[in-house]
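DM from R.C. (forwarded with permission)

"hey, sorry to bug you on a friday — could you get me a structure for this? deadline for the figure draft is monday and I only need the backbone to look sensible"
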Amino acid sequence: MKPRHKRAAIIVGALGALGVAVALVLNAFNSNLVFFYTPTQIASKEAPQGRTFRVGGLVEAGSVVRDGVTVRFTVTDTAKTVPVRFEGVLPDLFKEGKGVVAQGQLGADGVFAAREVLAKHDENYMPPEAAEALKQAGSMKGQTTVVQNGASK
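My reply, with the result:
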């Protein structure tokens, strides 16, 4: 084999290896993407079935039901609600009427099976996505929600 052919073979092999590496990185990145949806978006069937995503809003007052380690509650954006089922220990700051973000999958029965539940970390914080969703839902219903620096008041 001539030196020119060897160089060409090495370059083609290196480009092929680079292409495989880029494809693997992009596949891993796509598999770990977790999108955020509001209860209104879930009710309008915008959320994917059988894929992990996050839902956020407020825990509806009077909706928390504990049965051993299983907790059922409803997340609302003041326009629509989504029933959530979670098995495990909830964060200490989890309360009715407070902001929450749950990560999991939407079942065929319409119940969101959460694998992780995140509660606000102090009395002024709400996840920016949830605050924006509440703001939009409030404006749809004629209500106003003031959002400052990611905090809803």
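R.C.: lifesaver. Residues 141-153 have pLDDT under 50 and may be disordered.
me: no worries. The two ends are 74 Å apart (CA to CA).
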